Amino acid sequence: MNRRTVTPAQFVNRELGILAFNRRVLAQAADDAVPLLERLRFITIVSSNLDEFFEIRVAGLKESIRLGLHDAGPDARSAAEVFDAVSREAHALVAEQYKLLNEVVLPSLAREGIVFPRREEWTAAQRQWIRDYFFRELLPVLTPIGLDPAHPFPRVLNKSLNFAVELQGKDAFGRSSRAAIVQAPRALPRLIRLPQAQAGAEYGFVFLSSILHAHVGELFTGMNVIGCYQFRVTRNSDLFVDEE
């Protein structure tokens, strides 16, 4: 009886296979035959899938590397080699995703009367409405956290919207702080619809992140904001079972 020889090249790495699947999902968003809003939905599905992928699969790879586990998988790759390959492929996939969103899908939506004006594109009327919205809806629920020896870096919630703010000067109480963190509560919508009169289109939306970035200085009376940097943390959600 002849036995077929199986080589590592015949195995598909699990992590790279997941990324290949998401590339096929993204291909649906690039298909002109797919309805426009469905194309946008496929782009968001890729983002959701990648979040879960990094929470579970990439977290597992990093844990294997940390523990010094060097055993190769069926495809003859070590955890470190898979991690490097995943990093390259994930960066390429996200770059393709954003290029498709910014250069194809969003312009197509704008032609259909659905616009997402960028901060530098806001009209005077839009700026005024957004400013009023910030003071009415956002300012009361935002609590900046100063970073100094008495206030260590706060715990950042998984997949939450945050800003690192670089400051100069003293606040209304005479206190000086060079940095602060602003965390957006999860209850806040990530997209805010503009009234049609201000939108300049049938449907207009602004991102919560853009509103916060434009008005973060209002949280630090008497101080100068010299830098504001949006960030997001994806935490390890892999489950490790101790059999003992």
Task: Give a written overview of the molecule.
- This protein is of the alpha+beta class and 244 residues long.
- The chain folds into two domains: 12-112, Polyphosphate kinase N-terminal domain (Methane Monooxygenase Hydroxylase, Chain G, domain 1, Up-down Bundle); 115-231, polyphosphate kinase like.
- It has six helices and seven strands; from the N terminus they run αααβαββββαβαβ.
- It has a four-stranded antiparallel sheet with strand order 2-4-3-7, with no helix packed on it. The chain has a three-stranded mixed sheet with strand order 1-6-5.
- Helix 1 runs antiparallel to helix 2, helix 1 packs parallel to helix 3 and helix 2 runs antiparallel to helix 3.
Average pLDDT over all residues: 90
Known CATH architecture of the largest domain: 2-Layer Sandwich
- Choose one word for the global shape: flat
Percent range of helical residues: 40-55%
Q: State the name of the first-level CATH class of the largest domain.
A: Alpha Beta
Element string (H = helix, E = strand): HHHEHEEEEHEHE
Number of domains: 2
Class by alpha and beta content: alpha+beta
Number of helices: 6
Could you state the oligomeric state of the chains shown? Answer: single chain
